[in-house]
């Protein structure tokens, strides 16, 4: 997988977020049938949309779950339609405007609050025992109400070769004692001096949701954030306060000193080819790096920028449309689907972190002693959901633009102040998004 295909990529721009809100209101006004219906004189059809077209491994598991559920009872028949990820959000927006959403639809974790606020989806209402068994970042909430749940999550880490760190006298960090910012910076300088022209692949050549997913956790580790999470009404003080400025000054300097670059390939090829010493990347690239580095591969925690390490959380999840006429059937399917064997199959086929302890133990790659088990620990210790506010689609776009401007040499304080103004103006124009 490339960075762009990782679970948890929000395929939405600020413009489409505005369109989503407008269409959401129209969808509520128009009503809708919710895609249910009597399929064969007693069996109710439950329609289902997924973004997974083009991902045969994921679709294979869904097809198995649907076949097993449909065969397990006579009341409901789930019928799936898959869309390419790039077209999926547009299909949902159009479906909401027409009052023609399916009963079941998947959604990227960060967009859940927006779709709940816009009236696309209803409270999930499935067994609380299932919700309690999942990783916290596999559950989507808005205003403290559960609207979605997912089978997996993804996690970022620092990939390194043990031999390279040892040869250069660099301490190998642990979850108990991660690198401090000072150690991390010094390690990069040492590795540059050892012959790695650009020692860190930070993924800055990528675009879109990668930027807030990858770099806002660094900001949060430094003590800043994308928004004030106490009120969700302003980014002032969080995105442009002294902690945020200090972090972004270091971020800018890493590029100025050549410790990181905005050039390269999307993926992890530079690390696998030993062209960079460290790679800030995720679980979806782990198998390729294991093949390249073998037992020399280290899956390390991210550095501590002052307030403990952080990584992004929340990937694709499932919800029930607000207009679904057969929500009981949709809930029956979802409760059936959250079996450990299915969650483990998703994990192993897609290389993603299973959302339950039972699935972790069934997995071939994520159980105790398995090669990718460190990602489970990183997710449990450090994962932080992107702000659960309908404003997130705008926040994401603004953050990416500001981060790229800073990377390219813009004044840090004024750039962050402008970003705060844009975010706050959007929140105010939408009456606080319910907060």
From TrEMBL:
GO terms for biological process: maltodextrin transmembrane transport; maltose transport. InterPro entries: SBP. It holds the Pfam family SBP_bac_8. Keywords: Signal, Transport. Residues 1-21 form the signal peptide. One of its GO terms (molecular function) is maltose binding. Belongs to the bacterial solute-binding protein 1 family. This is Sugar-binding protein. The lineage of its organism: Bacteria, Bacillati, Actinomycetota, Actinomycetes, Micrococcales.
């Amino acid at each position: 997988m490339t960075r762009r295909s990782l679970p948890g990529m929000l395929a939405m721009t600020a413009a489409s977020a505005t369109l989503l809100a407008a269409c959401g209101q129209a969808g509520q006004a128009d009503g809708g049938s919710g895609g249910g219906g009597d399929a064969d004189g007693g069996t109710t059809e439950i329609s289902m949309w997924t973004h997974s077209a083009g991902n045969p491994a994921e679709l294979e598991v869904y097809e198995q779950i649907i076949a097993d559920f449909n065969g397990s009872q006579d009341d409901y028949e789930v019928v799936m339609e898959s869309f390419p990820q790039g077209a999926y959000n547009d299909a949902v927006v159009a479906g909401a405007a027409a009052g023609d959403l399916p009963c079941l639809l998947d959604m990227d974790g960060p967009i859940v609050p927006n779709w709940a606020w816009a009236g696309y989806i209803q409270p999930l209402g499935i067994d609380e025992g299932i919700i309690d068994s999942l990783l916290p970042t596999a559950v989507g909430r808005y205003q403290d109400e559960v609207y979605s749940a997912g089978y997996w999550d993804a996690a970022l880490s620092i990939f390194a070769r043990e031999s390279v760190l040892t040869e250069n006298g660099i301490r190998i960090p642990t979850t108990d004692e991660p690198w401090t910012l000072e150690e991390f910076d010094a390690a990069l300088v040492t590795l540059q001096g050892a012959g790695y022209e650009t020692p860190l692949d930070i993924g800055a050549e990528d675009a879109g949701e990668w930027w807030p997913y990858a770099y806002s956790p660094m900001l949060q580790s430094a003590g800043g954030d994308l928004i004030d999470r106490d009120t969700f009404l302003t980014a002032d003080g969080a995105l442009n306060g002294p902690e945020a400025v200090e972090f972004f000054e270091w971020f800018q300097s890493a590029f100025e000193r050549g410790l990181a670059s905005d050039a390269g390939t999307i993926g992890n090829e530079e690390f696998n080819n030993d062209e960079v010493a460290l790679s800030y990347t995720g679980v979806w690239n782990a198998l390729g790096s294991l093949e390249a580095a073998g037992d020399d591969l280290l899956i390390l925690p991210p550095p501590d920028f002052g307030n403990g390490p952080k990584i992004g959380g929340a990937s694709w999840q499932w919800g029930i449309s607000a207009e679904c006429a057969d929500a009981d059937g949709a809930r029956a399917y979802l409760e059936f689907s959250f079996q450990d064997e299915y969650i483990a199959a998703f994990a192993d086929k897609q290389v993603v972190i299973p959302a339950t302890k039972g699935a972790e133990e069934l997995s071939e790659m994520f159980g105790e002693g398995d090669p990718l088990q460190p990602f489970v620990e990183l997710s449990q210790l450090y994962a932080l959901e992107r702000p659960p506010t309908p404003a997130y689609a705008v926040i994401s776009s603004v953050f990416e633009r500001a981060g790229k401007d800073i990377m390219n040499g813009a004044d840090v304080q004024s750039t962050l102040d402008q970003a705060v103004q844009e975010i706050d103006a959007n929140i105010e124009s939408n009456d606080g998004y319910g907060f």
